[in-house]
Amino acid sequence: MAAAVVANGASGDSSKAAFAEIYSRLKEEMLEDPAFEFTDESLQWIDRMLDYNVLGGKCNRGISVIDSFKMLKGTDVLNKNETFLACTLGWCIEWLQAYFLVLDDIMDNSQTRRGQPCWFRVPQVGLIAVNDGIILRNHISRILQRHFKGKPYYVDLIDLFNEVEFKTASGQLLDLITTHEGEKDLTKYNLTVHRRIVQYKTAYYSFYLPVACALLLSGENLDNFGDVKNILVEMGTYFQVQDDYLDCYGDPEFIGKIGTDIEDYKCSWLVVQALERADENQKHILFENYGKPDPECVAKVKDLYKELNLEAVFHEYERESYNKLIADIEAHPNKAVQNVLKSFLHKIYKRQK
């Protein structure tokens, strides 16, 4: 799924500490869930599975719930109950992310995730990982039920998580059938397809979901924030375009990974831009070399990107996106909401990793 989103808010360190503390409590509750008679073996399995898959990321989506909630309330300090509820919703997003990634890695036949073998590649796990994904998803419902049932916004929370999960899974389907199914066919790739995949597969759960959780905690009705949803989805799209750009042009030492979008035949923003601008000869080079692991083929694609001046195309896109997002944010009547949206944007604008 998406690359890690950068956490917003100046109070990141205090939020991080509070956030980390709550995980153990939630895990303990899941291990003591009275709905199932756990054996010692199954308890050990779930304990290990949770630590392996829910932990290990930057937790930026989850921490964004706390920081956004603080900004909406106009305070740097939350009381104990508010902190717990915000952290719990943040962890529900991290559980959702873990669920997506466990299954995503199986579908992509990936080797590593967060610097360790994918869960399904761990000895004795294999395709039990599919069931673990289902358990992770069910934990979200159990956590929400335990801590939010009786709150006026409980049903809205359930609806929100269901809606975002459906959008993300549908985006994943579109990505899989466009990029992985049958013969490799670059004619399937265009800006509309790329945008739709990115919007549904990444933007909703990475950008909209944390802020929507904070709005519900603040007692707001999400129906009144359609413009905020649109801005965040647009921001998530811009973030993924940056990611596609950095995959090719970022410094591997700095971004912590070597980009493989060209070899992996990804429906990347760069290849879509190249297809729009290429003449017949250049298209032929793309069709012949894109999606092949041979370093010479990769070099030919990168040379073509240079020829088409895609670095400049990206910087122009980045400038236009930023200006439009700022204008849309400043048009919002609520200053606290503006602050939340600007903090997200300023953390990702012109990022280098």
UniProtKB/TrEMBL annotation:
<dbReference type="InterPro" id="IPR008949">
    <property type="entry name" value="Isoprenoid_synthase_dom_sf"/>
</dbReference>
<dbReference type="InterPro" id="IPR033749">
    <property type="entry name" value="Polyprenyl_synt_CS"/>
</dbReference>
<keyword id="KW-0414">Isoprene biosynthesis</keyword>
<dbReference type="GO" id="GO:0046872">
    <property type="term" value="F:metal ion binding"/>
</dbReference>
<dbReference type="GO" id="GO:0005737">
    <property type="term" value="C:cytoplasm"/>
</dbReference>
<dbReference type="GO" id="GO:0004161">
    <property type="term" value="F:dimethylallyltranstransferase activity"/>
</dbReference>
<dbReference type="InterPro" id="IPR039702">
    <property type="entry name" value="FPS1-like"/>
</dbReference>
<dbReference type="Pfam" id="PF00348">
    <property type="entry name" value="polyprenyl_synt"/>
</dbReference>
<dbReference type="InterPro" id="IPR000092">
    <property type="entry name" value="Polyprenyl_synt"/>
</dbReference>
<keyword id="KW-0479">Metal-binding</keyword>
<protein>
    <recommendedName>
        <fullName>Farnesyl pyrophosphate synthase</fullName>
    </recommendedName>
</protein>
<keyword id="KW-0460">Magnesium</keyword>
<dbReference type="GO" id="GO:0004337">
    <property type="term" value="F:(2E,6E)-farnesyl diphosphate synthase activity"/>
</dbReference>
<dbReference type="GO" id="GO:0045337">
    <property type="term" value="P:farnesyl diphosphate biosynthetic process"/>
</dbReference>
<comment type="similarity">
    <text>Belongs to the FPP/GGPP synthase family.</text>
</comment>
<keyword id="KW-0808">Transferase</keyword>
